[in-house]
Amino acid sequence: MKTQIFKIRLAEEFIHADQKLLDRFLQENNILKYETAFVKDEENYWSVILYYEELKVQVNEAKPEKYSAEQEQLNPDEIKILDCLKLWRTEKAKEKSLPVYLIATNKELLSIAKYKPIKKEELLDIKGFGKYKIENYGEEIIEILEMA
Hints:
Oligomer: single chain
Radius of gyration: 16 Å
Order of helices and strands: EHEEHHHH
Distance between the termini: 38 Å
Number of strands: 3
Structural class: alpha+beta
């Protein structure tokens, strides 16, 4: 198991770049565990420690492409699902005292709304979802999809 530390600065000029680095790392690695802390000093920021395994890709074997929705138009049902997922994510982040993007990014929620997995194992097909997110949030996400 490897570790990586990220600093997500809240200042407008840094937050998007810091978030982009974190998002890329989350997509390229299998996150096993994470820890976060809010640091309040001259520049307020989130400190994120990720415990991970690198996703292994054989040289001759292409990694299966995971589903990732791109700025696609959503139909009314998908908009309803996305709204429900965002509400759930906000509540879950408050409950765990985490920033919402550590629960799931907007792009991941958009992909769920478009892909509409039926079983939590199908969340593995969505870019950004690994064992950790599925174990911790999979059942709740599938329940939301069933109710929507």
